[in-house]
């Protein structure tokens, strides 16, 4: 009997992180798009803390031993986004000028933009998630800076598209892995 242990097999945490991101983004984006009023925000905050924030951070930490720099950076960062968003809405929303909130959103857009560049060799659906997300952040930032509700609503619809794409990618990764074949295509990563 050998004393050597079999190598650990790490499951793919991306579907968990994507689902946490997608569900929370969808709920907030329904408010941003004008489908619901701010009265629905308490449910967004609960989900942002428990699923969007915590589950994504767990997924990001799980990416570390897999050596996935992109996955760990994305999931831990967006998990922290949901925590910071929740803390802001709960305790600070009436103490921060809209222009500064615009900068918060804009800088998340900058982060998302360079993460999008990092997806250029990734699966097509992942590239789409990050493309639509950086546009969404910039629309929401512009809405805060200008006070134009149309930009805020457009950002809400961008968030809904982002969430739908992230849900699809999460579902594809779980379903394809379970069936050990491509059931839901995600677009092959670019070669080279």
Topology:
Elements: H1 14-32, H2 41-63, H3 69-92, H4 98-118, H5 124-146, H6 149-179
Describe this structure in words.
The chain is mainly alpha-helical. It is 73% helix and 0% strand. Helix 4 (98-118) runs antiparallel to helix 5 (124-146). The model has no long low-confidence stretch (mean pLDDT 94).
> Helical region count?
6
* Global geometry: globular
Strand content is under 5%
Number of E strands: 0
**Class inferred from helices and paired strands:** mainly alpha
Percent helix: over 70%
Number of domains: 1
Pick out the low-confidence regions: none
The run of helices and strands is: HHHHHH
> N-to-C terminal Cα separation, in Å?
44 Å
Strand count, sense and closure of the main sheet? none
Q: What is the arithmetic mean of pLDDT?
A: 94
Rg: 18 Å
Quick structural overview:
The protein is built from 6 helices and no strands. With 192 residues, it is mainly alpha-helical. The protein is globular.
Which key phrases capture this entry?
mainly alpha, 6 helices
């Amino acid at each position: 009997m050998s004393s050597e242990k079999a190598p650990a097999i790490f499951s793919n945490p991306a579907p968990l992180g994507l689902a946490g991101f997608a569900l929370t983004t969808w709920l907030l984006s329904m408010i941003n798009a004008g489908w619901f009023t701010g009265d629905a925000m308490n449910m967004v905050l609960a989900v942002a803390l428990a699923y969007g924030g915590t589950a994504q951070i767990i997924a990001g930490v799980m990416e570390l031993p897999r050596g996935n720099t992109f996955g760990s950076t994305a999931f831990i960062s967006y998990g922290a986004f949901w925590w910071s968003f929740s803390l802001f809405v709960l305790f600070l929303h009436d103490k921060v000028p809209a222009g500064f909130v615009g900068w918060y959103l804009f800088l998340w857009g900058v982060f998302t933009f360079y993460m999008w560049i990092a997806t250029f060799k990734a699966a097509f659906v992942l590239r789409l998630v990050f493309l639509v997300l950086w546009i969404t952040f910039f629309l929401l930032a512009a809405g805060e800076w200008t006070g134009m509700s149309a930009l805020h609503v457009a950002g809400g619809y961008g968030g809904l598209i982002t969430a739908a794409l992230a849900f699809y990618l999460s579902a594809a990764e779980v379903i394809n892995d379970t069936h050990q074949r491509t059931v839901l295509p995600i677009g092959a990563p670019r070669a080279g």
